[in-house]
Design brief:
Strand order of the largest sheet: 2-1-4-6-8
Structural class: mainly alpha
Helix content: 55-70%
Largest sheet: 5 strands, parallel
Length: 646
Amino acid sequence: MSECRVTYRREIEGLRAIAILPVILYHSGLDTFSGGFVGVDIFFVISGYLITNSIMDRNDAGTFLLSRFYERRARRILPALFFVVFCCVPFAFLWMPPQQLNEFAKSVVAICLFSSNIQFWSEAGYFAPAVDAKPLLHTWSLAVEEQFYLLFPLFIMVASRYGWRSIATLIVIATLISLALAEFSSHYHPASNFYFLPTRAWELLIGATTAMILLKRSVPNPAINNVLSGLGLAAIVFSIFAFSKTTPFPGLYALAPTLGTALIIARATPGTYVHSLLSLRPLVGLGLISYSTYLWHQPLLAFARLRSLVAVPGPLLVSLALLSIPLGWLTWRIIETPARDSSRFPTCAFVTLMPAAGAILGALGCVLYFHIGFSVRYAFASTIEARMSINYGLSEDCQFDSVFEVKTVCQTGAHPTIAIWGDSFAMHIVDGIVAANPTRSVIQATRSGCGPFLSVDPIDAGNQFNWAESCRSFNRSVLAYLIGRPEISDVVLSSELDRYVGEGRVSETALTSQKKNSDLAKQDLLQTIRSLEALGKRVTIVSPPARDGNNVGQCLLKATIVGENLGGCDFPISEYLAFAGPTTDFLSSMEEDGEARIVWLPKYSCTLSRCRASMNGAFLYRDNGHLSHEGSRWFGTNTPALRFAP
């Protein structure tokens, strides 16, 4: 997103506009621009081209100074960046719960250390849902460029001693190595592949290679330039509309937007159609302010999502994304442009003020992280956030691996008479079962993602065949334990079920069967039930609670922190029925056929029109489907069907 010009090229400003629009619209959630994230790759190529062109030109003229290069980069990047981050701080303080505020604070410090890409890599993948609420997520790309800027000039200075051909050869070799590493990592280490310089460097180096070629070779005739620049633009447009978050990136697929950008830089000469298009005044104007626009768009979208109790409407998100354009213009006018003018902002003043601003910003990040000076507010928010802690049931140690074993922390007494078996949706009902049966001892046999099925397991990107086998091993070990425990008279089964019965999910057994997933799952769950009933045990299935796909727990947390009515987190029952249709149909068919006893949790939290997110101040949910500890206890106290006679 930065530049160092020797010769001004209007069409490159227009190319920046082509890059920035898809990025901000993609982040606004506009599905049409499903590959809009490639705008960052376009910026990388442009940056690699511009700084190489500048370094080589000055180096050949004998006027290149490393200190001046770093100063120009700092003038281009830091003032506007620091300004936007400072503007984000008060909103983060007011609207973020402690954990998110801590992450925000760490990202502020990381920005000052040119390492925000590493920070965000350590927290979550770029395409994970939670990243939508990270106001400074987009600064990862600036960190990649900053790291490149620190190293690349040193490489040029050393390699230039051996001549232009040596530089070009080394750049090409480095490009190929980085690309190969990116392609490998896109399949095996996708998060680090997306964020780290070694797997992104090849995109900047494509720009550098383009600059090297143009320094030494003349361009072909206009007819060839028309064709090649047109192909480059077509490759970019294709990437924007054809790619999506499921596309392995930035491996070989990223060659489309990056080589497309290189073709435009190299061949969109005056007189070509692409040059004429990209030189249009609106595109050039947007390109000029593209950096500041980029800085503003993510905070606007993230804070809107943070402040809203429910999903922000798509049109509003698009409007906020477009609002970043006038804000970008204002920042470009009052911050960017003056900061880049050494006559208005002398070097001595700049090299004094920028480190000071960075130090203040870093100190502010530390203040936020250690909640210095606002312990009362932090203690209040922390208390609320603690109510949303992960509900493992009796203990985190009850999240077993491939084999179930008896643990003291996973039972409420020495001689349990109730067993709870299933995945995380069995974990979250444990508190409720315990509350509903205070005189009976309970044992927990649970594993995340692993429903109580003996032969069928979901296979998807997150759970491969080895995981499925370990899930079956776990379930067989639970059944073996129950066979040897006649004193356990009641077994409660529970599972999210979505991954077993939903369309598009494939179980291992289904690979050699013509049956639907739901039929296979029903057949297998009945096998579990019959095996338990043959042992003389009463079996009860507890359904998932009402869900609409949104993070109801976060809604409750935000509503409490900002002082809004918890009722704003309730959701229409129609949305629950639409979201949970396959699961509801699956359990209903078993109940109607008399094959299983089902306890329907939504019966106790939903009316004919709405489903409650809280009851008498108790948060029922901790996320988009799991019950909180207090929510589980509320269901246990208020659901007679969860009380089992001895």
